[in-house]
């Protein structure tokens, strides 16, 4: 077991960054034809970027990211994307209240 000091901040908070080629595969497979998409752990936004660039992107994309620094990274990833249909929030209560839309 590594001492706590040698662990990266991302590992300590449980962060994992999906490589873009994997996000592209999963985005095409999991989101094809969906009207609404919920990304419960947006991180740096790689899935959001991939999903928003699909031939027929979802009408609405909601992303939850608790870490404000990561939420900002996700917004930066989307700098060339029309974002009126994308919502990035830190509110997990939003997901609980609206989860029926994603069943």
TrEMBL record:
Q: Does the keyword Methyltransferase apply?
A: yes
Keyword terms, alphabetized? Methyltransferase, Transferase
GO terms of molecular function: methyltransferase activity
Name a single GO biological process.
Answer: methylation
Q: Does the keyword Methyltransferase apply?
A: yes
Membrane-spanning ranges: none
Q: What is this protein called?
A: Class I SAM-dependent methyltransferase
């Amino acid at each position: 077991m590594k001492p706590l000091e040698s662990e990266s901040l991302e590992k300590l908070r449980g962060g994992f960054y999906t490589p873009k080629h994997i996000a592209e595969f999963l985005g095409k497979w999991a989101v094809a034809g969906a009207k609404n998409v919920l990304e419960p752990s947006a991180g740096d936004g790689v899935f959001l970027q991939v999903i928003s660039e699909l031939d027929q992107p979802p009408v609405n994309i909601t992303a939850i990211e608790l870490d404000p620094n990561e939420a900002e990274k996700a917004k930066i990833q989307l700098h060339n994307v029309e974002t009126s249909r994308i919502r990035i929030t830190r509110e997990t209560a939003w997901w609980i209240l609206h989860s029926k839309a994603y069943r």
